[in-house]
Amino acid sequence: xxxxxxxxxxxxxxxxxxxxxxxxxxxxxxxxxxxxxxxxxxxxxxxxxxxxxxxxxxxxxxxxxxxxxxxxxxxxxxxxxxxxxxxxxxxxxxxxxxxxxxxxxxxxxxxxxxxxxxxxxxxxxxxxxxxxxxxxxxxxxxxxxxxxxxxxxxxxxxxxxxxxxxxxxxxxxxxxxxxxxxxxxxxxxxxxxxxxxxxxxxxxxxxxxxxxxxxxxxxxxxxxxxxxxxxxxxxxxxxxxxxxxxxxxxxxxxxxxxxxxxxxxxxxxxxxxxxxxxxxxx
Length: 282
Known about the structure:
- By secondary structure, the protein is α/β, with parallel strands linked by helices.
- The protein is 51% helix and 13% strand.
- The protein has helices at 11-22, 35-44, 54-57, 72-79, 98-108, 152-164, 174-199, 213-219, 226-235, 237-259, 263-281, and strands spanning 3-7, 27-31, 49-51, 63-66, 89-92, 114-115, 117-120, 141-145, 168-171.
- The chain has 2 domains: 3-172, NAD(P)-binding Rossmann-like Domain (Rossmann fold); 176-281, 6-phosphogluconate dehydrogenase C-terminal like domain (6-phosphogluconate dehydrogenase C-terminal fold), CATH 1.10.3660.10.
- The strands form 2 sheets. It has a 6-stranded parallel beta sheet with strand order 3-2-1-4-5-6. Strands 7-8-9 form a 3-stranded mixed beta sheet, covered by helices on one side.
- The model has no long low-confidence stretch (mean pLDDT 96).
- It has 11 helices and 9 strands.
């Protein structure tokens, strides 16, 4: 790993650039559409070179990391087919993997470029390079999602990238990944959004005064990028729908208990939730 190209300099791309540079792991070139972002990336030390176009950033790179919304990755990569160096290994930071793996396999078929999907379980509801953090990936779990036939050398290259910035790396199939994160990431985000929309319906003027720490912490992720989450739902609808239906079933049980004023069942439900939370979070 001599030169890493980072396509997109938001929170994820900016943080990766900072992590690579501060650890002295590789030369970093990057691309960003906004001139302000390019200037800030250089002043922060998130990259050695920053360009307006991804094609320019890819020159000489042996590893390329796409840090743009997941639906945009194949589109951008398609415009860069002649810019990738032979032998370049391409990865990403997207939250869904199955659709992307199929699209990238089709795109790179017969090309001297290999795609290995990645999903670092790190981030924030905040966006932009302004909130980038060199330690964002430290101690985070990063899922690799290679498909059958992916060269071992390419997998090792991306595994080494994420380990070098502090991540714990696990490998699993793209469809398995999408099913798991639908439950632990995508469902919680949509539920948080539902909570905000429900609480905010025709709200009285003084309602914000009653949005205390519990409301703020429970709904924090609902402040995330609508564009990014649109892409996540669009590329993982089957798994997300299954989790929404499971949630609907649990909600129906709780509604029934409250309607019947079965407060013993309500307490039992809350006790199960408390125990399960401890088990899930260790």
